[in-house]
Amino acid sequence: MGLIGGAMAVVGAVTLGVVLLPGKAREPAAPPPPPLTWTVASHLWANGCGHTYLAERTPPPPPEPADARRWAAAAGAVHGGETLVRVSVQGRGAAAVVLQGLHVRVVERGTPPAWSAYRMDDGCGGAVTPRRFEVDLDRPRPVARALDGYDASGEEGRTLPAVSFPYAVTAADPEELLVSARTARCDCRWFLELEWSAEGRSGTVRIGDEDGSPFRTSGTEGRPAYGYDSPGRAWITSSESGQSG
C-alpha cells in the first residue's frame, strides 16, 4: 500500500506539473509584405558612355556598359563623383499603390580613398537628357530633387516633365525612377527610401544596391585622373591624352 501510494503521489506530482506549465506564448503574425516590388540597376553610365570609377590599382580596360558591375567588382572599384541609379517600381497586383515621396538616407560618411580616378571615356553627349532626381550628397541632409529632362532627338526639342509625387503604380503600370547622386568630398554610403500607401496601409521601403547593401559614391576631387588609350592599350593621364579637367 505504501508503494502504491508513493507511486500515485509521484504520478500526481508529474501530472500536476504538466498542468501548471505555462502555455507557449503565441508569436505575433508577421506583417504582410509591401504591395509593391522593385528592381535596381546602379552601374549606369551617363548617355551609355560617361562614367568615372575610383580604383586602388590599375584596372583592366574599360568594359562594355552592360558588364560594368562585374568589371567594378573584379577591380575593387567604386563610383567616382556620381552614382546613377535606376529603380523600376510596380505594384504586386491590379490595385493602385500610391508613391508618396522619395528620400535619401546617408548611413556613413568618410574621406574618399586616396585612389586614382579612371574615366570610361573622354566625354560624350546624347540627344536625350532623361528626367531624374538629383542628390547632392555633400549636403548635411541630402534631398532628392526632381528635375525635368529634355529630348533633342526630333526637329523640335521637347521637355520631359519631372516626376511629381504622389502618383500611382500597378502591376500593369510600372514607373522608373532615375537618381543621380553626386559628391566631391565624401565617401558616402546611402540608401533610398520610398514612401507608399495602398488600400488603407502605408509604409516606407528602403532601397539599396542590387545585393541589398548601401550604394557607395566617393568624391574624386584632387585625385589623379586617367583615360584609356585604345590604340596604345594603356591608361594615360589627362595631360598625356591632351584632355584637361
List the helices and strands and how they pair.
Elements: H1 2-20, E1 36-41, E2 52-55, H2 68-75, E3 78-80, E4 82-91, E5 97-110, E6 116-119, E7 128-129, E8 132-136, E9 145-147, E10 149-151, E11 158-160, E12 167-169, E13 175-182, E14 187-198, E15 201-207, E16 215-218, E17 225-229, E18 234-237, H3 238-241
**What is the gyration radius calculated from CA atoms?**
28 Å
Helix count equals 3
Strand percent estimate: 35-45%
Q: List the helices and strands in order.
A: HEEHEEEEEEEEEEEEEEEEH
N→C terminal distance: 103 Å
List low-confidence stretches. Answer: 1-21
> How helical, in percent, are the residues?
10-25%
Structural class assignment: mainly beta
Shape: globular
Largest sheet: 10 strands, mixed
Nearest-integer average pLDDT: 86
Q: In total, how many beta strands?
A: 18
How would you characterize the overall build of this protein?
With 245 residues, this protein is mainly β. The protein is 13% helix and 41% strand. The radius of gyration is 28 Å and the shape is globular.
Q: Could you give a short description of this structure?
A:
By secondary structure, the protein is mainly β. The protein has helices at 2-20, 68-75, 238-241; strands at residues 36-41, 52-55, 78-80, 82-91, 97-110, 116-119, 128-129, 132-136, 145-147, 149-151, 158-160, 167-169, 175-182, 187-198, 201-207, 215-218, 225-229, 234-237.
Top keywords for this entry?
245 residues; mainly beta; ten-stranded mixed β-sheet; five-stranded mixed β-sheet; 18 strands; globular; disordered N terminus
